[in-house]
Amino acid sequence: MDGEIPEDGLKFYFYQRVFLRAAMRFKYVYMVFPRAYSKSFLSVLVLMIRCILYPRAKLFVTSGGKE
After folding, report:
1. Cα four-point dihedral sign 29, 14, 33, 9
2. By CB count within 10 A, which of 4, 19, 31, 38 is most buried?
């Protein structure tokens, strides 16, 4: 069952829904969150939703490297 979405859908906390709304509404978003906030999951989810809603959009993800 790992990696599968439950039949009743995903359930987000209030602060996660606020992040999703802000990320979908504005072009640039800068936020700093603590551990266990699901930052990576929510960021990829926003990109996937944008790809579905806006076909032919050019989106990308970057991450820091070992310095």
Report:
1. negative
2. 19
Mean pLDDT of 10-31: 86
Residue position matching structure tokens 């050019």: 58
**How many angstroms from the chain centroid is the CA of residue 10?**
13
Asked if residue 27 belongs to a domain, the reply is yes
In a domain, 64, yes or no: no
- Token pair of 53, please? 């809603």
Six-digit token string for 57: 């959009």
pLDDT band of residue 2 (cuts 50, 70, 90) is: low
As a whole number of angstroms, the distance between CA 51 and CA 42 comes to 14
pLDDT in tens, 53-65: 888 888 877 777 7
